[in-house]
Amino acid sequence: MSILRGGFTRVERTLLDNGEVESVYQMRRSFQQAMEDEFRRVVEEATGRTVIAYMSSIHVDPDLAVELFVLEPLEGAHEGDPAPGSDGARSDGAGPDGAGPDGAGADGAGPDAPADSD
Question: Please, which residues have CB within 8 angstroms of residue 102's CB and are 6 or more apart in sequence?
Answer without folding.
Answer: 110
